[in-house]
Design a protein that fits this description.
The chain is 20% helix and 24% strand. Strands 4, 5, 6, 7, 8, 11, 12, 13 and 14 form a nine-stranded mixed beta sheet that branches. The two termini are 20 Å apart. Helix 1 packs across helix 2. It has seven helices and 14 strands. By secondary structure, it is of the alpha+beta class. Strand 13 and strand 14 form a beta hairpin. It folds into two domains: 60 residues, Roll (Structural Genomics Hypothetical 15.5 Kd Protein In mrcA-pckA Intergenic Region, Chain A); 233 residues, 2-Layer Sandwich (Pseudouridine synthase). The longest helix has 13 residues.
């Protein structure tokens, strides 16, 4: 694999939507822009509205405006990123399937299937891991980064399967959150990628930024001009070859990303010329009968929030990954 350097995943699936547009009503004509944003955009405080204006994340009729500018009836206000999500608790689904890999009074580790979201985006949404979690572990409601993702320490893209770490108490969450920030939580992944990787192991050290033209993606800033323009965050992914499938020009790899950013593994592999099989968004080939990338969170090692002893949880490749890989190899 070619290493690219400047100077996941726990692939955080912070959902990205197209720019959000609002039209100013007659009743709001003459209101300061920052106040109007705080009043009309759900979940947006005035302080954050001012920050967005200063960061050029808001346009009125296609142009930047100062926070003290007054809006007029019919003005079209565009946000370059979606407004903050509403605060709500997931609906408890008592009959929802949930595979628990490890459980005690402080933490739970579950096995997330591919195609299932970690948490809901709407208050009435069902079928996510969070819906199943609050039904089985109701004490986690209100624990975590946001109410709609109770207890979840790290998130996986909808299309990524595997281990997901959940805290059952606020104390456990804060302890594990600090461990995650400090790089003391080890996460391993298995992926099928395009191309034959010649070296046995290596590191991809390329910072990542929101993609300037496609809100669904992140941009691997491998060039100095991109670093200067987009101010990316550092991101490092370690990889090791598990198997080379020479007749199909594909490679099975193990990856590690301690403090992963959104889509880190997907963007890093694509930037290195080895996109994930099934990851059409980042240039990978389609797989017949499957609509997601072949990426599996296979292992997590973390310090127990109460005792500090290492907890090591491993889950093998799921059957749908193996079947999809077989179809990809057969059609490659």
């Amino acid at each position: 694999m070619t290493e690219t350097s400047t100077t996941d995943e726990d692939e955080s699936e912070t959902e990205q939507r197209p720019p959000t547009r609002f039209v100013v009503a007659a009743a709001d004509a003459g209101v300061r822009l920052d106040a109007w944003l705080a009043r009309r955009v759900p979940g947006l405080s005035r302080r954050r509205a001012i920050a967005w204006l200063e960061e050029s994340k808001v346009e009125v009729n296609g142009r930047r405006r100062a926070k003290g500018a007054l809006v007029a009836e019919g003005d079209v206000v565009t946000l370059s990123e979606p407004p903050p999500p509403e605060a709500f608790d997931p609906i408890a689904e008592d009959d929802a399937a949930l595979v628990v890999l490890f459980e005690d009074d402080d933490v739970v580790v579950v096995d997330k299937p591919a195609g299932v979201a970690c948490h809901p985006l709407r208050h009435d949404e069902r079928g996510t891991i969070a819906n199943a979690l609050v039904a089985r572990f109701p004490e986690i409601v209100g624990v975590g980064y946001a109410r709609r993702e109770p207890g979840i320490l790290h998130r996986l893209d909808n299309g990524t399967s595997g281990v997901l770490l959940v805290a059952r108490t606020k104390e456990a969450f804060e302890s594990l959150r600090e461990a995650l920030r400090a790089g003391r939580i080890e996460k391993r992944y298995v992926a099928l990628v395009t191309g034959l990787i010649e070296r046995d192991e290596g590191v991809i050290d390329v910072p990542l930024a929101p993609h300037p033209r496609d809100a669904r993606k992140v941009l691997a800033c491998a060039h100095e001009r991109d670093v200067a323009r987009y101010r990316p965050r550092p991101a490092t992914t370690r990889w090791k070859v598990l198997e080379r499938i020479e007749d199909r020009a594909m490679t099975l790899v193990e990856l590690a990303a301690e403090t992963a950013a959104r889509h880190q593994i997907r963007a890093h592999l694509a930037a290195a010329g080895h996109a994930l099989v099934g990851d059409v968004l980042y240039g990978g080939p389609e797989v017949p009968g499957i609509a997601h990338q072949l990426l599996h969170a296979s292992r997590i090692v973390f310090p127990h929030p109460r005792t500090g002893r290492p907890i090591d949880v491993h889950v093998p490749l799921p059957g749908d990954f193996s079947r999809a890989a077989g179809r990809a190899l057969a059609s490659g």
